[in-house]
Design a protein that fits this description.
Blueprint: E1 2-6, E2 9-11, E3 20-21, H1 22-27, E4 35-39, E5 55-61, H2 69-79, E6 85-89, H3 97-102, E7 107-111, H4 112-117, H5 120-123, H6 131-137
Parallel strand pairs: 3-4, 4-5, 5-6, 6-7
Antiparallel strand pairs: 1-2, 1-7
């Protein structure tokens, strides 16, 4: 099972339509609306550019928390104009949630084991204070 992390906390996955792989998508002649696509982190998001208006959700794979290519893919998808739901999926850690949101992800899908090791309160957004703001408050 997996847990979906959003700004409001942990939730079960509410997407019930299933996912299509990017290779399956390329083989489809006619695309129905409301598709959900799995995008590996070693594929060019531009492959989806002509079809973004028919895709409701894109799930970008993060095979390891140390592999940050998915962040670039998320940013690229938003730059290409994708306005649908964007999900990072994999063993990300709570410290990476803010970065995922910053580059355009709406949610993060983590394995149950990650949710057990890093409970919901660790994922909640915290106010961001810059180093300069911190220093000015110390004087």
């Amino acid at each position: 099972m997996t847990v979906i992390v959003t700004d409001t906390g942990f939730a079960p996955d509410d997407w019930t339509g299933g996912f299509v792989g990017i290779d399956e998508l390329a083989a489809m002649d006619a695309l129905p609306g409301g598709l959900a696509v799995d995008l590996p982190n070693d594929r060019d998001p531009a492959e989806l550019a002509a079809r973004l208006d028919r895709i409701a959700l894109i799930r970008v794979a993060f095979p390891a928390y140390t592999d940050g290519r998915g962040f670039s893919i998320g940013k690229s998808l938003r730059d290409l104009g994708f306005a649908g739901r964007l999900r990072a999926a994999g063993p990300l850690i709570a410290d990476q949630y803010r970065m995922a949101r910053r580059v355009g992800f709406d949610e993060v899908e983590i394995p149950d084991e990650m949710a057990e090791r890093q409970p919901e309160e660790q994922w909640r957004p915290r106010p961001q204070v810059s180093y300069q703001q911190h220093l000015s408050g110390c004087r």
